[in-house]
Queue: 4 jobs
Job 1
Amino acid sequence: AYTVVPKTKRAYIAKYQPQSGKAVEDSNIPVLRLSELYLIAAEAAVKLNNNDKAVKYLDAIVSRANPEKTVQGKTVTLDDVLLERRKELFGEGHRFFDALRNHQTIVRKESTKEFPEIAETSHLKMVDESVSFDWNYYRVVLPIPKAEMNSNPNMQQNPTYGD
């Protein structure tokens, strides 16, 4: 879900709304949820080739969201877990880091076709460079500040930033 603010003509994800009469900044935004822990455990189980545990953890999330659905009796893949993470943790800032952690290409899709009412918002234009990039793109990791580099002679600057 999203909201378009008429005054600023900007679109925002409206997942966590403030209480009546409160500002958005006062919203109680969760930092870590139990469902995220289950999804972390399911991802780890998949990576350790332990399908029984992957099914156990992922099914807890899938069947809670939709009692008609289950992953029991299936082979759970990393893609299954990552898709469920995208749905369960939508708008919470996890997708980018999920892609980096799993060495995936980050693709930022233009959303104006699906949601024409946000086509005129002021912050949707992206430079070509940021539309798609690999997990090891040099700008994903920022340079270490010069003061930090100077304070520790054993420190090595992140790749492509020089000394």
Note: The longest helix spans residues 51-65.
Job 2
Amino acid sequence: MPTVGLIHTLEQCLNRMQIMGLIHTLEQCLNRMQTVGLIHTLEQCLNRMQTMGLIHTLEQCLNRMQTVGLIHTLEQCLNRMQTVGLIHTLKQCLNRMQTVGLIHTLKQCLNRMQTVGLIHTLKQCLNRMQTVGLIHTLKQCLNRMQTVGLIHTLEQCLNRMQTVGLIH
């Protein structure tokens, strides 16, 4: 994708979509991508983004999303992703992110998310999900995320956005 001049980084993609008024939040972006059938699994998405050289670390991705105002809290993100059925299992997600070199440990991931203001503690995140009636236990959370479905590939997403004239 970068070779045909679409985008060079996921940051540019997200930034451009915001500049053009196409999305205001990551929630809207994920919701729309599912609606038009653009995406499959977070694993495939993350794997493809790394393969295409769009991101180097999940830290960069999360940091940039906050910088361009796409997300406010991981709580909102998780809440919305469950609502629109975007995620599989947290275990698969974390395992894959580690496999493709995006994170080394869950601790590092949580530490970074806290650093960029996305969450304060995992406990708060779980407490919030329970408060809004999403889960009662972490086990139920994982089971639920596995039950619902996800997304295609970032390449297909970018191809579609180009097809409908959203990006050049």
Note: Residues 10-19 form the longest helix (10 residues).
Job 3
Amino acid sequence: MERADSKIATGLDAFPFFAKYGHYVLATVVLVSIVNVILRRYSKSSSIVSKEPVATKELSPDEGELSYRAPVSERDRDNRYVIRDAEFNEYETAVGPEDEPYLPKDLQHVKFDYKRPSEEEIVERSLQFYKIADARRTLRFFSPDPVPREVIRNIVRAAGTSPSGAHTEPWTFVLVSNTSMKENIREIVEREEEINYLKRMGKKWTTDLQPLKTDWRKEYLTTAPYLILVFKQDYGFLPNGKRKIHYYKEMSVAIACGILITAIQYAGLVTLTSTPLNCGPALRVLLDRPVNEKLVLLLPVGYPAEDATVPALKRKDLDEVLVEFE
């Protein structure tokens, strides 16, 4: 036993640092390993609260602030609301056999039904469409006058004709006209927008918005007869319940929103493209949308108020936005 100890001591003498501090190094390595294991286990058990964006709210049986309640699957260990959106990388998480398309393999291709107009006609059409689009303005003052629901449904139907990656159609349009629901939406938005304007957005951003006379108050959310909330589907589901990849979902939904806004203008109505920060998860839960959907835009839709005003803005000239090669 003495010989073994002697050999060990002799070996350590060759490394004076380890001979003197080796037990500290060993203790540090063991401690770091233990902490790492604990953190990994905690991260797995509470990953739902470690990712942004997160909205939390204490659960209380006697509180009556909001009418929405997060599902049990979206509460943490302390029974707090933990509302977040799903995360899904469409290019890393392929589902199903790679040689099996989502669309039918024998998908029929039919002749395109098209009657070619004259050059004079397409010039006239393009000019008329430009005039309609150029008259579009962002409105913050709405009339409460009712709008036929059929009109709004036709507008959304038009937006649904948008092209999409692999024809996955990764969008959901939620139409809200219920007064109580609109009040809840406004409460959520204004609560977050007040924080946005006071803290999150910063001095420069709020300064740039001053000429437009915007603030955290959003009266139009309860004045306009309709609210359209556009959700992006990060992924879909196959008939067998497995995930369906959505390609180019951001671009696809953006195009659909452009068609939606243009259809609103063409119908003779007005809107506002609202993108309130940090409201998406709470609004998703309020509207009972699944975790694979994320809020992209919130648009109030209706007629303008009689005394509505808009900023006297000027758009860029064509030569400022168009580069031509002939």
Note: The longest strand covers residues 293-302.
Job 4
Amino acid sequence: EDDRRWAVSKDNGMFDQFTGATITPRAVVKGVKSTLNYFNQHKGSLIPRPNACGEALSTAKLTTSSTTPPISGAANEQ
């Protein structure tokens, strides 16, 4: 969807950017816009629908990977 409001204010959009930084805010605005467009185009397959019995139908499958290491406590420290 081509909506000019989805831009940082420096590009005549409606989103503020950080002082001295526009690359990261531009990427964030672009990413959020793309995500919302994807959701709006595919929401029927993304959101479970109730069946005739009122139970939610879900086509998503939960998978786990044993190769992913747990996050250490040090990873959250700054």
Note: The longest strand covers residues 49-50.
